Amino acid sequence: xRYLPLTDDDRAAMLAAVGARSMDDLYAGVPREAVLxxxxxxxxxxxxxxxxxLMTLLxxxxxxxxxxxxxxxxxxxxxxxxxxxxxxIQRSEFLTTYTPYQPEIAQGTLQALYEFQTQVAMLTxxxxxxxxxxxxxxxxxxxxxxxxxxxxxxRIVLSGGVHPHYLAxxxxxxxxxxxxxxxxxxAVDDEAAVARAVNxxxxxxxxxxxxxxxxxxxxxxxxxxxxxAGALLVAGFTEALAFGLIExxxxxGADIVVGEGQSIGNAxxxxxxxxxLFATREKYVRQAPGRLAGETVDADGKRGxxxxxxxxxxxxxxEKATSNIxxxxxxxxxxxxxxxxxxxxxxxxxxxxxxxxAACDLADALTAIDGVELLTPxxxxxxxxxxxxxxxxxxxxxxxRGVMGGVPYHRLTGAPGFENVLLVCAxxxxxxxxxxxxxxxxxxxxx
Amino acid sequence: xRYLPLTDDDRAAMLAAVGARSMDDLYAGVPREAVLxxxxxxxxxxxxxxxxxLMTLLxxxxxxxxxxxxxxxxxxxxxxxxxxxxxxIQRSEFLTTYTPYQPEIAQGTLQALYEFQTQVAMLTxxxxxxxxxxxxxxxxxxxxxxxxxxxxxxRIVLSGGVHPHYLAxxxxxxxxxxxxxxxxxxAVDDEAAVARAVNxxxxxxxxxxxxxxxxxxxxxxxxxxxxxAGALLVAGFTEALAFGLIExxxxxGADIVVGEGQSIGNAxxxxxxxxxLFATREKYVRQAPGRLAGETVDADGKRGxxxxxxxxxxxxxxEKATSNIxxxxxxxxxxxxxxxxxxxxxxxxxxxxxxxxAACDLADALTAIDGVELLTPxxxxxxxxxxxxxxxxxxxxxxxRGVMGGVPYHRLTGAPGFENVLLVCAxxxxxxxxxxxxxxxxxxxxx
Amino acid sequence: xxxxxxxxxxLLQAENLIFEIGSETRxxxxxxxxxxxxxxxxxxxxxxPLPLPGLSEPEAVRHYVRLSQKNYAIDLGFFPLGxxxxxHNPRLNERMARLEGFADLHPLQPExxxxxxxxxxxxxSRWLVTLTGMEAVALSPKAGAHGEACGxxxxxxxxxxxxxxxxxxRVLVPSSxxxxxxxxxxxxxxxxxxxxxxADGRVDxxxxxxxxxxxxxxxxxxxxxxxxxxxxxxxxIADMVHAAGGYFYCDGANYNAIVGRVRPGxxxxxxxxxxxxxxxxxxxxxxxxxxxxxxLSAALAPFxxxxxxxxxxxxxxxxxxxSGADPDARPFGRMCAFHGQMGMYVRxxxxxxxxxxxxxxxxxxxAVLNANYLLARLKGHFGAPFGDRPCMHEVLLDDSTLxxxxxxxxxxxxxxxxxxxxxxxxxxxxxxHGALLIEPTETESKAELDRFANVLIALAERAKTDAAHFKxxxxxxxxxxxxxxxxxxxxxxxxxxxEALRAAAE
Amino acid sequence: xxxxxxxxxxLLQAENLIFEIGSETRxxxxxxxxxxxxxxxxxxxxxxPLPLPGLSEPEAVRHYVRLSQKNYAIDLGFFPLGxxxxxHNPRLNERMARLEGFADLHPLQPExxxxxxxxxxxxxSRWLVTLTGMEAVALSPKAGAHGEACGxxxxxxxxxxxxxxxxxxRVLVPSSxxxxxxxxxxxxxxxxxxxxxxADGRVDxxxxxxxxxxxxxxxxxxxxxxxxxxxxxxxxIADMVHAAGGYFYCDGANYNAIVGRVRPGxxxxxxxxxxxxxxxxxxxxxxxxxxxxxxLSAALAPFxxxxxxxxxxxxxxxxxxxSGADPDARPFGRMCAFHGQMGMYVRxxxxxxxxxxxxxxxxxxxAVLNANYLLARLKGHFGAPFGDRPCMHEVLLDDSTLxxxxxxxxxxxxxxxxxxxxxxxxxxxxxxHGALLIEPTETESKAELDRFANVLIALAERAKTDAAHFKxxxxxxxxxxxxxxxxxxxxxxxxxxxEALRAAAE
Lengths: 447, 447, 506, 506
Ligand SMILES: Cc1ncc(COP(=O)(O)O)c(C=O)c1O
Ligand SMILES: Cc1ncc(COP(=O)(O)O)c(C=O)c1O
Fold this sequence. Notes:
The complex is a heterotetramer, with two copies of chain A (447 residues) and two copies of chain C (506 residues). By secondary structure, chain A is an alpha/beta fold. Chain A has 15 helices and 15 strands.
């Protein structure tokens, strides 16, 4: 067995050294009746070639995004990631190491995390950021819990533009913790309603911008409503790249900015692993969840980095911890920070502009078709369309024409309503030909 | 431009520091009329995404071996290479370094080369091996030249079983150097003829085993004929893996063993880069071409490795060098040695046995078809068939049935004769279904 | 000591922050110029500064390669970090995860285009359920702690379904538990009640008995436990908890010690997370990502969260919303957007297929054998609180033989760094003072274990006469001991542009 | 100095030979058992011992990762090895070379299944021919030296075709030439006649004039030459050689200084190899593989070796045998089995497309600018034999300012190692005593150049008072200075099983 260095001779010698006759002696502590005397009923070990064949067969039963004209977003985005990013994150020293508990031999990871935190803070225009959450949705749940701790209140208000999966995730976590969720009805643009929903019991107002419909929102009014009521404004986002072009939440009064970072550096990978970005104000940092890298010096006075403020965390504070998170999205943060470093402000802005232009071109092309209505008033690279038919049927029909046309909003809720609404996204990976193909196919399908 | 760190500001500052007004000042030494005043007529720079698209398009115009039932050999072999091998050779420290001229900071490369040399010597059962040639064919040419130096003779005899491409390569190199080539006519098995062709002018007798027809040969008689005449026996091989199962040339009296190492650790890659293995007797080592890593100690007495015996080489000896080779197959040797280390004797023997069994099964299945005759008397994983039709037409017909059936021998020579001979190979990557598919398709094609 | 002008030391390269070496105008990507068409941003164009530095590709590659060489890693040497299971991460797994058919797949593509991905999830579920002898598995949790939450929320849902939501709020958690256990219980709205350990390093049966009652929702136990021991009374405890109307959550972080030899389902477990990044070899990546699929008993299976997988004849589909759930399913909610850590599923299944049922059993055995071998070699030289009987996959030592000489756990750890080893887990579990928790895993050779044991024994000897050596360690690492107190007292969690100005002014 | 028990020093891991850590029974692969059917080996089953050691995958990965960390590399730092063009190797190139459609392609597949590969070769040829302004290119040579042989054999064939095969045997090679040039000429059966350099580091025009004659087959010149200078009289020399009935071979190793700015075809060149692993960024891999496509003038193009590419309307085919050649082609033979270094073609074309015509020109300019910048910063501190005028892509210094203090080129090189740099090329070209040949390439930033210059200047200062520092260098590398004399006097070129027995006995 190729991953096991011990030979049978080794095993015999070691058993002898241990003073055991057989492995059964070492498992003596296990109740007899629970010990299996043979392998379970699953296939036996196989060589690389055989396993590779099997996995390749499974992979071939999927239709990869890149083999179609691809316009699916709704919280995960297909972007080009430079080849060097994947090369770097596969370096043994990054890939096969653990959380940097021994900082003297983990400066690589720690410095990269410190750089990541700074980049996230800069991108969102916030003061500080943590070393990542599992993904955008769990990060949003953590933000709700954090707001409740900061405000010592229990009411969480969510905009109707929040991604339904995010809403469900927040709802689940908050219900577990005993908070009250006030979810506004699904709406493309509900800025005023959100502001109105804030009251003196409110711990947090959660808005997403861009939201699931692609809508981008001026958060200033909501921020002042929230702050006026003593609540925190939690600003989510579905697509981190947007901040290369749109005003970041941090510049509009958000107290916590949280969202999905996948679109920078990370593959679609059918939904995970992704990376949750989490930024907040310095004054709240001791209530923040997750790891934090910080600067310090070594015994010789040289600059170095460590994990810090760990008295917030489960391994020190146990049931009083700010979160139960332990393992986070380590390697995805590395991919994120490496990609962001390759982009820099200049590259990021250009990339964001290309995305926006592709989406504008797509919106023009699709809304030129009879019966197609654009619902999203302001957007970055994604928007919602009202179609004259059920969106799921349209998506299936488009697929037979080589186009993956987007996500039926109704798929995300399963609840009645919005059956004709299609969420559509374009990125720098879409060519003008893709867009023309989509428009042609949609015209056909709707004809 | 993503690979260029200088910004326009940098360039201006540096020109100023240099005291030049523009780049033209720095190119002042170039004759005016030879300076291009604009870029040549080729496309301008492109982003990764665009380049990747183009290259992927080109790649998609090929039919990869693994998408067919694949039986092509004749000097390059499709084997499974463990995933860890490709990971390791992509490590920056191996990939992006040069020939180890500064041994204190190149021990990684040097130790790996020393291990490689030892493994090659063990595999071929020879005393020493060098740090690689470009490939098997150029290695064979170097062996001929070396034999001429050692014996101070000029006549080189080649068996008719030598791969025609190798023969052409040897002929070209030897003609350049003024040696005489005696190439025996193409023959599946010409042991006796080879022995007879040796005379007192002969510098080297060159045999391949396995040869291009897959034939393996007992070299002992040829060795004594050669040694009796004061000539060297150069034993080539097409498939290094064979030595996991067959008697190595070193154990049968060869003076130089040289051949293609691709099948261990290296992808098919349409013919290159590959890795030439080159082993010889200790007493001839100062006439050997190419780099040699050797053991020594550092100033503290610690074991270390260096490139050695470089007085044989072009950078020291210039026109008196044993060869003009400089860059060799560095990274391919690393892939080779890493794969061989993963195999070990146990894995190598088993892998070789699997190859041989697949080839035997294939021979049984194909020779059961009317009119198909097995030409190769003894073989490892490859053999020649005589077909009742032209082999090139058969290969084309098989292809339409999803089978890549082998190499028409005639393709390799272009000369009249052997038009119906097909070279066929099987490896551990062929399943019983592949073999059955081949037999069924061939029966159909010949029916 | 040789000093250098450059700040480098031979191969070890000094490397500044990207903010100090990059610039806002430099970039490592080439992108076509935007056309400059009118925007649809509704006036929300960014006005905030965007001081993100860029690097050309050569500079960026060098930056991260240099940083990487300041890390320790499994691929570099022995990494016996107890509880973390730092085993070899096969490269085949990485290659499979990058197959276009897995990596370039959007979670919300039409289901007919992702049947291979769903088959993979089905197959992974089959392996997990069969190996553990449980009823079902919720794949989506994103790490162990997330899996704990999944299990505890399933328990909560079951209790609420029984109408005991307001009365059963207490969760028993042993003092030896990993911090995530109490943290999870609290985050799920439970009250944590700590139970003691006995002198043998196990859960105190008497304490459990006394604390059980009608308000107990669950017990959270780790098995094998964090002292590296199998809980011998586990079946009895499970029965007692069940009899009292509670559920048994098992922390499966140490499942690697028993995989293929013991099925948690046979021990009365109701829920258990499986860290794919421990038992099933997916890489830790410097802190993640992990994956924490959670197996559930028949009692809890109906409450599994969405999404979950359903087979309709030849095709598979995901139930993604609570309203879409089957009539007999009562999902307690959703753990995260999308379907969990697909990239880790691919790696874990690749590993399972590679090892097979026979190999996984051997994995457990070799892990246990390696640990016992180290225990045998080390127990004469270090305190070994429970060293009088076999351990499972971990050896728990302490610093009791070192302390009299002024050397404690942290000092030994730092001295190990100089010796080229990653330290073991230190000061955990909390139930042992100055704990040294060593987990060798099955992917270490006997030679590597012997070398490590020799070093530890030599250090134990040296400690008797040379505490200063330990206090000053590490000396050979990229940095000396770091001032963690200062980091926490004056937190500096990011670089700020002012630093550049200050540096320039100086 | 801190000593360790393990032999490791912090992150730097001691690592024995595979023969010392592996065993013949261990393996890192899992293969199905052979069926045991009767063989067809005709009695030639191996009887010789096969003492090849195997390692499990974890041990093997660790072995090579540990070794790798003992290497310097471009990705780690500045690698100014003159003449070797250690520029950044883009990762996109690596990814493209691994596309299934390129990597999993057999050289002898039916031609209709490899049209993409042939198109790639055609496109690469178009770029090379257009950039150099030449008539044709022979792609197959496997490295620079192999390309030299290709060019010289084409020249030989052309001469033979003219019936002068027996009379034109002399080849003029400047004393500053790279060793491969005379070695190649000799290997091709020519007589090497060395021509002098002039005081300005260039080929001595007078000497060339004198040595030209009816027996001269060719001149082999490097341009820009190995002193880092453009040969100003190159066109004149070409014309003189042509007038004398000879051919002009240009060593293109330094083509990176002029790519996109000067076309060798405009200089009268008849043949020139192009090291794809220099100008076109394919990785050096610790010594190879390289690729040496050789461009040819109209006079030599008919003699290009097989295989060569022919387009028949929509399809491409390879002419693989001399008998298959077109009537107007007179291939001189074959350089190697198959079609050359396809893996390198993919990388090089990827690089060309990335940079484009504009970018390649910029590459040359930045390489030249970087070199001149270093020259400007360093010439006051080191001997700079030709430092009074601009250089091309390389700076040639010498140790004349160090020697009086007892420090020479090799000592400076070793001191640079401690400072974290790979030394420059030393003692080459031979025409300058104690040469220090620095090639920064275009992929270094100004900051990196400044840091390097600062270190060199500081070392030049230190040399004045502290020769001992240099003589004892390196101190911070994995090993101290190695005894190369001993290695050559008592060559030990392999490990032998006896060593294990001896070690065991001790
Ligand atoms: C015993 C135990 N429980 C739970 C966890 C938490 O798992 P994760 O880090 O995957 O969230 C760990 C991780 O170290 C652990 O060791
Ligand atoms: C000037 C010069 N010519 C020729 C060569 C030989 O090229 P290769 O190593 O690719 O065979 C080199 C390589 O360093 C060189 O620098």
